[in-house]
Amino acid sequence: MTLVDKEAFQKGIKDGIPIALGYAAVSFALGIAARNHGFSWLEATVMSLMNNTSAGEFAALELIRVNAPYAELALTQLIINLRYLLMSCALSQKLDEHLPFYHRFLIGFDVTDEIFGISIGYPGKLNPFYSYGAMAISIPCWAFGTCMGVLLGNVLPQSIVSALSVALYGMFLAIVIPPARESKVLASVVLVSMAASIVFDWIPFLSWVSGGMKIIVLTVLLSLGAAILFPIEEEVSHEK
Amino acid sequence: MRNKVLFAILVMAAVTYLIRVLPLIFLRKPIKSRIFKSFLYYVPYVTLSVMTVPAIFTATSSPISGGVGLITAVVLAYRKASLIQVASIACVAVYLIEFIL
Fold it and tell me: Cβ contact (<8 Å) for A167 and B54?
């Protein structure tokens, strides 16, 4: 590790602190949800260590609880986490052409909304050690928060657990709303998606469709519809 | 740890890792298809919206407190509060409204 790498690593840790704090809070709520779905602290912690995806893990809780087929679980992760494909596509352009593959394998482990956000903001080509710094502090916090959520979910009074259950949705809204504010198309997409989700739950003959399939079906249909009706301009910024 | 759960975790971890790492390994040129780029661009917004509503109404002790949490989070996010602020203040709002009810 050169001096430049060391500095990048330290900067990654520093920029990763607010992310890690946010992760600890949100993963605590995820842990509570995991407990409500019958997960042990070890199961939930291992899941968080290996996945690093709030929406994906959240959807998986219900699928695993009802013993959904592995194919459905895989397909749900594929669709929910498709955004990481887009982010990794953008991130690939930030990497030095000659960056060795082992760095690419490691960076790919933790392409999240937040770490992608700060990585894209890194001046010039991305130093992989910057990513490692952010990962070094945020991955343990994500796993630790999940673990604590499972363990302390038992201890905390119901009123606190109920209040914390809303944190994850708050985070989703914090990701979705600000860009929607800047774009009428995005705002419409968000509103239509929410309305469609409510309608989907109300229609009796669709009630046999599982939660994971619902997310897949609505995401593919609505995203494709939006893409055809309102294709994005050639250079849309991926910044948060 | 239940074996079935461990295997499920491995399946989802493998899928999620491949999604993240394959573009870093194989992508040398930018994506050309405008429709595909647009599709990927809209996916997170649709997915997160679908997952939030109506689930938020059943996540807390009552639909009313869930609704208060939803409105609080939307207003704060609209005012560009940070991720931590939105999540934590929504929790406080839910706690307070359930305390009152």
Answer: no
